[in-house]
Structures are given as structure tokens and as C-alpha cells.
What does this fold into?
Amino acid sequence: MNQDIKYRGLRNQGATCHLNSILQVLFMTREFREAVKRCPKENEDINVQLNALFEDVGRNTAETTKVTKKLQFENVYEQQDVGQYLEKILSLVSDEASQIFRGELVHRTVCDQCDSDTEDLVPFWFLSLPLMDSSDGNYSVEDAIREFLKDVRFYGEDQLYCDKCEDNRDTTVKYELKHHPEILILLLKRFEYNYQCMSYSKDNRAVDVCHTIDLPENQTYELYGLVDHFGL
Ligand SMILES: [Zn+2]
It folds into this structure.
């Protein structure tokens, strides 16, 4: 056995590479790994299976069967949505482990006429960012964040109803970051439903990923992990 190899990877049960990619990044997130380890062993939640898996990765090619069972996988031969399974894992682990990624957005709706301001709090574990065209053809994660946080105007036929004015009005809607998570997960929305083919199609365009990202209110994040999944 080659002692230089520190980690031995996860066996693919069929088409569970999407799950394995999430588990690998969670494993490499020290804060998460340690929080999972601290969780009482008698708990019935997924911490027990995750902790056993994380210990295995250091020794063997680890099996994920107990994790997929806990996540109630119906078919391990079918690719699933990464975001959905990340959300499922984080909803099942201990609060201490999941809160590392927990942030909060404010969804703000402002009537242009009366200035009335409605705020909805939206907790999140990751931000799903749009892929969109940019003038120079290069697409970047920074563009995506700017796009995500920009003002969206509803006017003309798209006006929204204002309770105070009791009528449809030009309205500005935007997301603001209220609570920055300790570790920020960004998900690029590469899949779009194609109604002609009645299936999802993947947008394979190249994306520039920067090593540091500045978010509003001087919050800077440094990149430490990235999932680059090939194929469908
Ligand atoms: Zn109004």
C-alpha cells in the first residue's frame, strides 16, 4: 500500500458521483468534519454514517451505501440534483454541523410609488447562481453574484400589487445578504429544462473562478474547494 496516498476516494455505486462530489467537499471542510465527529453516537441522524465514512476515506476506498440508504436513494443508477442532495444532507446533520453553511438573505420588495418596503427573510445553505451571457463572452462567478444581488424591476404589464397603494405599481425587488455564512457555498445553475426535448440540458460553458470573492459589506471569502463534475 502506498503510504503517500492520504485519501482513497469513494466508490461510485452506479451514478452516485454527484453525491460523492458533495461528500468529498464536505469531508475536506475541517469545521464540518469535526462537528460531525463531535455529534453523540447514539443519535439516529446521518452524523453516524457520515462520521464512519469520513474515517474510512483515510483508510480505504470508502463505500457510501449506508449514506445513500439514510438519504433514501431510490435509484443509485440515476443522476440526481446536487443541490437537492446537499440540502438533504445539511437538513439531516446536527445543527452544529449545518450552521457552518447557514446564511440569511433578505428578499426586499419596494413600491416605487409609496416607497413601502416589504422584507422576507430567506435562510440558505448555498446560493444558486444563474449562468448568463456577458458582453465579452467570459463568464465569471463574480458576474453571477452581481446578477444574483442586482435590483430587478417589475413595470408595465409586470407591475406587482402594492398593499398600501391597493393597486399594481412599478416595483423593485432585490436580494440582500443579511447574515454571511461562515463558509459560503455557491452553486452554478448549469441545468435548464428544455421543453422541446422534455429533459434537462447542461450548459457546459467555461466559467472563471476567482480565488477570493468580495461580497457586499466587506465580506471576503477565499476559495478552498471546488466541484468540477464532467458529463451529464
Ligand atoms: Zn405602494
In short: The chain is about 25% helix and 25% strand. Residues 111, 113-114, 116, 162, 164-165, 169 surround zinc ion (CB under 6 Å). The chain has a mean pLDDT of 85.
